[in-house]
Specification:
The complex is a heterodimer of chains A (241) and B (358).
Chain A: E1 2-6, H1 10-23, E2 27-32, H2 35-45, E3 49-53, H3 61-68, E4 76-81, H4 88-93, E5 98-100, H5 105-113, H6 120-128, E6 136-141, E7 144-149, E8 153-159, E9 162-167, E10 170-174, H7 178-184, E11 189-193, E12 196-199, E13 203-208, E14 214-218, E15 224-227, H8 229-240
Parallel strand pairs in A: 1-2, 1-3, 3-4, 4-5
Antiparallel strand pairs in A: 6-7, 8-9, 8-12, 9-10, 11-12, 13-14, 14-15
Helix pairs in contact in A: 2-3, 3-6
Chain B: H1 2-9, H2 20-39, H3 48-51, H4 53-73, H5 75-79, H6 83-111, H7 118-163, H8 170-186, H9 188-206, E1 213-214, H10 215-233, E2 237-242, E3 251-252, H11 258-269, E4 276-285, E5 288-296, H12 303-325, E6 330-335, E7 339-347, H13 351-357
Parallel strand pairs in B: 2-4
Antiparallel strand pairs in B: 1-3, 4-5, 5-7, 6-7
Classes of the chains: A alpha/beta (241), B alpha+beta (358).
Chain lengths: 241, 358
Amino acid sequence: MKVLIVDDEKPARERLRHLIEDLNLGEVVGEASNGREALAETDRAHPDILLLDIRMPEMDGLEAAAHVSKLENPPAVIFTTAYNDYALQAFEQQAVDYLLKPVRRERLERALTAAKRLTRVQLSALRDNEQGGRTHLSARIHGSVRLVPIEEVRFLQAAHKYVTVNFADGEVLVEDSLKALEEEFGDRFVRIHRNALAAKIWLESLERTGMGGYCVRLRGCESCLEVSRRHLAGVRRLMRR
Amino acid sequence: MAHKRQSLSGESFLPNFCAIRMVFAVVIVAQLLSFLFALVPLRPGSDEQWSNLGLISLFVQWIALTSAALLCSLRRWLARLSQIQAGLLSYAILLGVIGAISEATFWVWQLSGAALDSSWHLHFLLRNLVAGAIISGLVLRYFYVQYQWKRNVQAESEARLQALQARIRPHFLFNSMNTIASLTRSQPDQAEGAVEDLADLFRMSLSDARKLITLEEELALCQRYLHIEGLRLGERLAISCETEALPGDALVPPLILQPLVENAVYHGIEPRAQGGRVEISGARKGSQLTITIRNPLPPSSEGGRARNGNRIAQDNVRERLAAHYGPDGRLELSMENDHYDVTMTLPYRTQQDEGSNR
């Protein structure tokens, strides 16, 4: 059994490593100190189990788990947490395994032998308990997960089943619905059309199109995005600020 | 402050009549009473009493000061009795003094040749005793109500202080325990040190919130706290401490700085993968001390959470500053491009100042 240990604190990682070695239950294939590193390490070492700390810089454990779950063959996840980082009740309700730090040897043994994959329902229920949205959007590309930092996203456009994420380095498709994205990142984006959200920080100018309509230009984007009549007032208000 | 409380609870409700201020108050009140007696003549239309103001004053002052002197000398003894016993006894003392002095006055008059019959004698004695009984009763009742009120106010402010007692975050406790569990195996010496530091911090957080400690001790506690966090966060936590300008003997409420340092680590260092520096600096301007704790700003996504948690600890510190120093204790926050500053201002008070305030 291959285990990846993710925790931003070195002593915490060391302790888990020692315990796993003592238990002789698995092999530690890597360590990561935040969610982003965890995804990279998962890509590299293909662990069976992630021991995932929740409160970490850059990307927290809950978000990392959500991205990981998009893999074709996602590892099982066991969260580790100190006191009241997150509502422990939520973990119990969702039957998600978690370990309280300092982790007990017997408890770790039980968790490792019973480790199971998380479902998306469990994850989204957990994430509802957390304040603030994700820091990254993720898309599955060739069996690995591609992360897009949310602040680099220029606009989100719905098309068929997917939403196109336009960002500094190009475009990816994500499976989240536009409505869910609007709810999660409502303060970052403004609705400009029934099928599009534009990032407020990248807004540049509002222009008139030939046919009497309007479109917005975003910094770093060549095309001018159509603004529907219904959302014009909202966009105007933003531009004035 | 603990000392004050003790003396209050062990004290009877009677004020200290040995104090100069109290004697002065007794003289003033007695004089006002004399005016009152002179203003209310027994027979309407006669202004006989006004001309007797001097005599009335002499009589009332004599009673008041004798009573005060007696209550002063019996003070220790009265304090040992229950409130009811002490109240009844002092009432009896007051009536006794009134009776005795009335009697003495009568004899002085009679010896000075005034023709006074025995019915006048009885009338004089009874009248003085009844008036004295009413006034003494009112005065004692006033002292008792005032004492109760004072006790309530004190109990309330103490309860408030205790409720405000600084509490170390459970988050910190469990993370430290985890660090210690790890170090016990790899670096037992460091684990030992961490246990000692942790014990000091929790001892202080469980101690009496009303007892002040020196600024030197408080800064040492901050150092212990940072030492533990340093073990946990490793190179991510850098510390600089420029507090030489601060007088070590200044008295501060325990754990008044530590929660702010903890905030700086929790919100400024932990959310940053690359870590950062917590800077503690202090300055003294005359009798005013300022201490600034600076930390780098967390990444923007942490903002919402950070501000929320910050406020709880800051409000607690602010309220404790207000409870201890009134308007002289302040907490100011400022945010600049890349760092967050919390500046505490407090008066420089030492053990001696506290002693002379009592």
